């Protein structure tokens, strides 16, 4: 059977991607969270973040390749301080 990536968004603005053999329902997710030990949940979240990192690495490669093209132009630069304020 082919696996599916369940991209789950929680009510605290966090998304976790879980690869399973079936599409998970909201009730499935709630059951997993309630029954799984904290260490298991931590590992699931860690694996999700690693997957996101691999995607980000591939995206970084794409952007770097585009930066090396001859027709590069800078449209805008914004400046921010360490507290997130625009300067």
**Number of domain units:** 1
Give the overall form.
elongated
| Rg value | 19 Å
Helix content: 40-55%
What's the helix count?
2
Order of helices and strands: EEHH
- The strand count comes to 2
Q: What order do the strands of the largest sheet run in, or round the barrel if closed?
A: 1-2
Distance between the termini: 53 Å
Q: Decide which structural class fits the backbone.
A: alpha+beta
Major beta-sheet overview: 2 strands, antiparallel
Mean pLDDT: 88
pLDDT < 50 runs, ≥5 residues: none
Q: Per DSSP, what share of the residues sits in E-state strands of 2 or more residues?
A: 5-15%
Give structural notes:
The protein has 87 residues and is α+β, with helices and mostly antiparallel strands. It has one domain (4-67). Helix content is 46%, strand content 14%. The chain contains 2 helices and 2 strands. It has helices at 26-35, 38-67, and strands at residues 4-9, 15-20. The chain has a two-stranded antiparallel sheet. The chain is elongated and about 50 Å long. The termini are far apart.
What's this model, at a glance?
Helices cover 46% and strands 14% of the residues. It has 87 residues and is of the alpha+beta class.
Name some characteristics of this structure.
elongated, two-stranded antiparallel ribbon, alpha+beta, 2 strands, about 90 residues, single chain
SSE topology sketch:
Blueprint: E1 4-9, E2 15-20, H1 26-35, H2 38-67
């Amino acid at each position: 059977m082919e696996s599916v990536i369940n991209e789950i968004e929680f009510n605290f603005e966090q998304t976790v991607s879980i690869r399973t053999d079936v599409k998970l329902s909201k009730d499935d997710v709630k059951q997993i969270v309630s029954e799984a030990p904290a260490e298991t949940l931590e590992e699931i979240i860690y694996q999700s973040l690693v997957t996101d990192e691999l995607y980000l690495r591939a995206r970084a490669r794409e952007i770097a390749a585009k930066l090396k093209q001859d027709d590069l132009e800078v449209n805008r630069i914004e400046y921010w301080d360490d507290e997130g304020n625009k300067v």
